[in-house]
Amino acid sequence: MTRAIRKIMVYVDGSEQSISAAQYAIVLAKSLGAELLALYVVDTRALAELVRSRIFLESEQDEYRHDLDGDAERYLNHVRELARQKGVAVSTHTSSGAVHVEIKAKTAELGVDLLVIGELSQIRSRREELYNETERAMRGVACPVLIAKGEDAIWDLYEALE
Q1: Rounded to the nearest 5°, which phi and psi values hold at 74?
Q2: Which pLDDT tens digit goes with each residue over 26-38?
Q3: How much is the pTM?
Q4: How far lies 61's CA from each of 70, 73, 113, 161, in Å?
Q5: At 117, is the secondary structure helix, strand, or coil?
Q6: Residue 152's CATH number
Q7: CA 11 – CA 19 distance, rounded (Å)
């Protein structure tokens, strides 16, 4: 019998919820003997919108993009360290574009069996509901999606992991 879950991808966006999701993905990967992948998407679509709506000048766009690339590296390094502490190997991936499109493409390209995402934020308006990139990704990927909820319980599982 083949294992149902061989590759787990966690989407990391820098939020506390995504770090909690990373901890849960580490627990799952170790428990299931699955390969762990972490993805950070630099949202260039949102960046272009900021320029178009004149919140940023085009000259500021490159500087902000550089900052976003730095954020990606910092958060993926944090996930690497969390995994290393528990003896789990993780391959990290950075992509750029529209978040939901990139998550869908990477899960398909890498043959992911399970996508782990952090708890979705509360929707305060219809507009937010339409533009929540993580939720759009959840609905668009071809693989099962696990929403990691309950930060305290996840922390306890992560800490208990040998």
Answers
A1: -65, -45
A2: 999 999 999 999 9
A3: 0.85
A4: 14, 18, 36, 42
A5: strand
A6: 3.40.50.620
A7: 9
